[in-house]
Amino acid sequence: MTGALWATLSGLGFGVFQAFNRRAGKAFDVYFSTFILIAISAVILAVASVLTEDLSQLNKAPAVAYVNFGLAGLLHFYVGWTFLSISQNKVGASRTAVLSGSSPLFALLISAMAFDEFLRLPVLAGIFMLMGGVYLVSATDDIGRTRQMKWRDSMFGIATALCFSISPIFIRGGLKDLPSPLLGVTIGMGLSAFAYGVTLFFRRTKLIREPITRDALLFQLAASVFVGLSTWTRWVAFDKASVSVVLSLGRLNVPVVILLTPLLVGNAQENVTPRVWLGAALIVAGSIILNFYG
């Protein structure tokens, strides 16, 4: 499988995760919900590592590999997802998606400076088509009108995109010394779960806002499984494709959410406008270009 295909599977999986997480409801505190996702994903990845990987690699790997994977996990899952939550509270989820969706543009610079990856014109065209689609899908509210954002509030979303763009540097650094994406993401996810647990312990706020139903628990568990598997495939993609291609194909989660979420929560809560469909079409078209030329 090519790196672009692994990245495509990751993007689709993240879309399913977001839809399931939306269906699970808002019974949990946002930080506690994120901790559950990370913790369950860490357990799933650890079990998969024990069953499929040669664990003797962990003894042979130098300390710098653990440092790289740990930094990648903390930067992406702990810091990046925390900035994402703050940004959603300040400017809303749709505006946050626009800002965090700018990660491929950061990746263009990072690829050139860190990896000497200079992309061909068709790949650049695919990236910018994806960016245009992300804007059309995300820069509208429920009735299709745009809203203005204050520059200071927008900084959290930009910081999210920057975290998502920088973390691949540490991923690739770790894979040079420990060439196992599964073991690498397990290390990063496990450290992030521990750090998040410590943070919640000292935060001491109400973690459950309302009674938890069986339905909410099942969808939360399913969301955790998908985000764990999607993260794994994303790290495999980073080992096989350029950073810009992987980050851009990650935008495939948008059309999946558009199609799946209304089926799970109802059209009344998910108003899909023609502008949203146009944005989704651009995202799919850009992704196809990247699959052929990336």
> What structural class is derived from the secondary structure elements?
mainly alpha
Mean pLDDT: 79
Indicate the percent of residues in helices: over 70%
Shape: globular
Helix run count: 13
Which spans have pLDDT < 50 for at least 5 consecutive residues? Answer: 142-149
Order of helices and strands: HHHHHHHHHHHHH
List the helices and strands and how they pair.
Layout: H1 3-24, H2 30-52, H3 56-60, H4 63-91, H5 93-100, H6 103-115, H7 121-138, H8 151-177, H9 181-203, H10 214-238, H11 243-249, H12 253-265, H13 274-293
Helix pairs in contact: 1-10, 1-11, 1-12, 2-4, 2-9, 2-10, 4-5, 4-8, 4-9, 5-7, 5-8, 6-8, 6-11, 7-11, 7-13, 9-10
Polypeptide structure, described:
This protein has 294 residues and is mostly helical. It has one domain (3-121, 147-253). It is built from 13 helices and no strands. The protein has helices at 3-24, 30-52, 56-60, 63-91, 93-100, 103-115, 121-138, 151-177, 181-203, 214-238, 243-249, 253-265, 274-293. Helix 2 (30-52) runs antiparallel to helix 4 (63-91), helix 2 (30-52) runs antiparallel to helix 9 and helix 4 (63-91) runs antiparallel to helix 8 (151-177). The protein is globular, with a radius of gyration of 18 Å. The protein starts with a helix and ends with a helix.
